[in-house]
Amino acid sequence: MAGFKKEIINSAFDSGIINVIIAHLTKCSKQMKADCGATDNLLQNNEDAITNRLIAMYLNAKPGVFRYEPQSPEHYDGETDRYIGRTDIKVISGDYFRDGKAYHIVECKRIDGTFTLNKKYITEGVERFFSPDPQPQYSSYYLQNIMFGYVVQDIDIPENTDRIDKLQDSLLKGATASPFMLKQNENSQYYVYACGYDASDIGKIELSHLFFDFADVINGK
Questions:
Q1: Could you give the number of structural domains in the chain?
Q2: What residues form DSSP beta bridges with 218?
Q3: pTM (global) more than 0.85
Q4: In terms of residue numbers, what domain contains 133?
Q5: For residue 32, is it within any domain?
């Protein structure tokens, strides 16, 4: 990642920015789940619908350090006049207005315990940070980003995470992955794992994997 300033990367790491973002994601997810149950206004079994409600009603409900932007185009290609990728959630702070590359990305995917969605979590989620076409779809300015798994079926989350971990070894293109390491969990409501990735073209980055159990408030599972 040419042009990175070491002091910026160290500052982001030392301040625990990624943990602050994860804390806000989990807090807002818990509130959204509670409100769904209290009002019977259940979530659609649809990635974009869940993300849109989470952003509009919770993540940006009050002024804060970060702003959460939905469906942001990523990586303009001057040869084709198109954007290569489109992020689910772009997390921006004051740094973004000094350097338009300074932001974090949250990539969202549904998880139901099946091979199909576990595979998509990797090939249509994780890989977007690495696979060149001709470059990764998503940038990693701070070398840290987030995968957010919306668990939409009643499953054993750690057991399914182990399946995803093993699938990375055989399916992941563009990088090699270290084993998932559990960072935190709250009973069985959510789990956060860390995973390091080594890509030949961009070097080492870390993805935090947040799996949150929304199964009880999904309509039409």
A1: 1
A2: 43
A3: yes
A4: 6-219
A5: yes
